[in-house]
Amino acid sequence: MKKLIKILSVMFAIGFATVSCSNNDDEPVMSQTIYAIASRDAELTSLKAAIDKAGLAATLDATGTFTVFAPSNAAFTSFLTANGFASLNDVPVAALKEILLNHVLAARVTSGEIATGYVSTLAKGGASATRNLSMFINKSSGVKINGMVNVTAADILATNGIIHKTDAVIGLPTIVTHALANPNFTSLVAALTRSDMPNFVSILGGTASSPFTVFAPTNAAFASLLAETGLANLAAVPQTLLENALKYHVVAGANVASTALTNNMPVTTFQGGMFTITTTGGAKITDANNRVSNIILTDVQCSNGIIHAIDKVLLP
User: Do 271 and 252 lie in a common domain?
Assistant: First the structure.
């Protein structure tokens, strides 16, 4: 009997030690939450501090299926310097919370499941209180987010999702951010930044006259315009024509999502002219010259507006 008691005592001691060990730093990463992993990773101490300040610890420590793009300490240092903050304590809590939520997806997405295209984050910007911000992921060379941020380490598994480390903080994207990020908009960017144009980067990257709704022609749309007009290249488009055409693709003071488009909807543009949207048989725009463009991509939500892609350049 004494021998049996001794054996049971040893077994109990081993079991107690095993249970205790599961709650310390030796616990395997994959058995911890996203918040717990960030708390123990020496490269993510700034992220952990930001999560605490923004009041998101409970969210990222709870049950869920999150994907978190996690900026390194160096990334936070660069972010603070670039935005004129002496320390994390100087960042307003509301702004910090939205910035952090802009790093979080509601679904667990591994590196193998990531595809080039748009996803929605948990953040919201100033353009809409109900629509979540879009993130553009490009996998043509590594994983690049919104044209500026690179994934440096992927697939850190957690009980409530997955972490991918990044080399920069992902700022809230503007119209300009998303135009620059998507390689299908390089002709549009070239047109907007032509030296004889107004400062469209400042206009569409800011908040004056915002929110904006932009009907953005793709590269193929610009190629079609050049063929239609017989012009050799974008540089050959007359200044007045190009400026008026670019302004004609913008609606100021409204964040018009695809769900708000109606049949025979008249639209007044930033240029001052009008066009008509029809929805029968797919959303289309008929411009002032009775030319028809198809809306081929909708609802790229930005912090200062929304983008819909079209397959033909509109002419006022």
Answer: yes
